[in-house]
Design brief:
Domain UDP-glucose/GDP-mannose dehydrogenase C-terminal: 311-414
Binding site for NAD(+): 30, 35, 86, 121, 153, 261, 325
Strand order of the largest sheet: 3-2-1-4-5-6-7-8
Strand content: 5-15%
CATH architecture of the largest domain: 3-Layer(aba) Sandwich
Number of domains: 2
Organism: Xylanibacillus composti
Number of helices: 18
Helix content: 40-55%
Radius of gyration: 23 Å
Structural class: alpha/beta
Low-confidence stretches: none
GO molecular function: NAD binding; UDP-glucose 6-dehydrogenase activity
CATH topology of the largest domain: Rossmann fold
Number of strands: 14
Mean pLDDT: 96
CATH class of the largest domain: Alpha Beta
Largest sheet: 8 strands, mixed
Bound molecules: nicotinamide-adenine-dinucleotide
InterPro entries: 6-PGluconate_DH-like_C_sf, NAD(P)-bd_dom_sf, UDP-Glc/GDP-Man, UDP-Glc/GDP-Man_DH_C, UDP-Glc/GDP-Man_DH_C_sf, UDP-Glc/GDP-Man_DH_dimer, UDP-Glc/GDP-Man_DH_N, UDPglc_DH_bac
Length: 433
């Protein structure tokens, strides 16, 4: 099939590249000319394992194209996928300006029947509103189909090729069947539903996962007070198939471009129909407070932060991505700097994006975990990159002014710490050292 994918961000690019890899002809469109230029040169504008290789392969084989010219891409396509951002507005609602603009541009470029697939996460009722807008701008027939995206950054390609499910929301049975056919090579459960339910499935899924994280963080905080070990507790809970073991890692809380904005948006969606989503409001509040725990530990252990040096390991909101949007690191580094600490940061891939977003020249960029630890009074670990698991902690301790490690992701075990000589604190576990 011929596809145009509008937006080459974390979702649009991976979607376009994976569809081309299963044999469709795909044109990826972005209004950001620099991104398109980079892609044309066979380079990925984002860090996502395996993506660059797939971009090159499918470009060389002639199935994948990139352009800033939305009009021609839409003219040539039977299916147009909208994958532009829906960031958070100041009041917490999803900001729909990009999706509305993209829908307008698609409507005016249409030259015949098109199926418009909305992959962006949008509040319930938005697909219907988009359909009404497009209908007001074009004489050509079309259908709008909601196919919410569930990929995880860092494993986006695997998630796209092997999703747990594909949700297809549509008012038209024929359009839904066509989109089912588009996904056919992916052998997974495909669920056909209505537009509003599809939109809600996305928000409900993210809100549920965020709830699991905040729940285990509350249990972790309680474990600290009663002398239990949250890692053991989560393991024991996870054996119960009704609970499952994923999303039960206690730490500094969730971040990223989805959970924070999608939980806020769902609270707003509820508020708009006078429903007070109390549980979700608490989930958000617990998550906000969780970021303070690491900071407070540092203040306590260092007796204040003024003139102290703190190394920070890990800046991206999770490992294997360079995405720092709403990452706990932004807030924690901000608090450290505001408290008068000198902050030395290190992340394997997210340094550039982090510095751009933090925009504070006083932060000191390091090229390795040991450089960030050197002459520091403490180090705090905020992202569980694999390379941090393999550090020689004894050597790290020898480089530090004070051998203090605050582990915001519960990466290390008693065995790892054995003989390292570190003062070690983690989240919801007994003191190990
Ligand atoms: P992103 O910000 O990384 O990318 C959006 C891209 O769209 C940008 O490159 C931007 O330049 C481009 N764009 C905006 N308007 C355009 C227009 N009119 N024409 C052409 N290009 C345009 O966003 P993302 O992280 O890929 O997220 C996209 C959507 O998918 C959001 O609704 C998000 O909530 C949802 N989602 C994201 C993830 C994730 O892990 N990032 C997972 C599931 C769902």
């Amino acid at each position: 099939m011929n596809l145009a994918v509008i937006g080459t961000g974390y979702v649009g690019l991976v979607t376009g590249v994976c569809f081309s890899d299963i044999g469709h002809r795909v044109t990826c469109v972005d209004k950001d000319a620099a991104k398109v230029e980079k892609l044309r040169a066979g380079q990925s504008p984002i860090y996502e394992p395996g993506l660059e290789e797939l971009i090159r392969k499918n470009m060389n084989e002639g199935r994948l194209h990139v352009t800033t010219d939305l009009e021609s891409a839409v003219e040539e396509a039977e299916i147009v996928v909208l994958a532009v951002g829906t960031p958070q507005s100041v009041n917490g609602e999803a900001n729909l300006q990009y999706i509305e603009q993209a829908a307008r541009e698609v409507a005016t470029a249409m030259n015949g029947y098109k199926i418009i697939v909305v992959k962006s996460t949008v509040p319930v009722g938005t697909n219907e509103r988009i359909a009404a807008r497009i209908g007001g701008l074009t004489e050509h027939p079309f259908d709008v189909v909601s196919v919410p995206e569930f990929l995880r950054e860092g494993s986006a390609i695997k998630d796209t090729f092997h999703p747990d499910r594909i949700v297809i929301g549509a008012a038209s049975r024929e359009a839904a069947e066509k989109i089912k056919e588009l996904h056919q090579p992916l052998t997974t459960k495909m669920m056909l539903t209505d537009l509003r339910s599809a939109e809600m499935i996305k928000y409900a899924s993210n809100a549920f996962l965020a709830t699991k994280i905040s729940f285990i963080n509350e249990i972790a905080n309680l474990c600290e007070l009663v002398g239990a070990d949250v890692a053991q507790v989560a393991q024991g809970m996870g054996y119960d198939r009704r609970i499952g073991d994923s999303f039960l890692n206690a730490g500094v809380g969730y971040g990223g471009s989805c959970f924070p904005k999608d939980t806020q948006a769902l609270i707003q969606i509820a508020g708009n129909v006078n429903y007070d989503f109390k549980l979700l409001r608490s989930v958000v509040e617990v998550n906000k407070n969780q970021r303070f725990n690491v900071f407070n530990q540092l203040v306590r252990l260092l007796n204040g932060l003024h003139h102290k040096t703190v190394g920070v390991w890990g800046l991206s909101f999770k490992p294997n991505t360079d995405d720092v949007r709403d990452a706990p690191s932004l807030e924690i580094v901000g608090m450290l700097l505001a408290s008068g600490a000198k902050v030395k940061i290190y992340d394997p891939v997210a340094m550039e994006r982090f510095c751009e977003m933090l925009n504070d020249p006083s932060v000191i960029c390091c090229s390795s975990a040991s450089e960030a630890a050197s002459n520091s009074d403490a180090v705090c670990l905020l992202t569980e990159w694999d390379e941090f698991r393999h550090l020689d902690l004894k050597h790290i301790a020898s480089l530090m002014r004070q051998p203090i490690l605050v582990d915001g992701r519960n990466v290390y075990t008693a065995e790892d710490l054995n003989g390292a000589g570190l003062i070690y604190r983690s989240v919801g576990r007994p003191m190990l050292s």
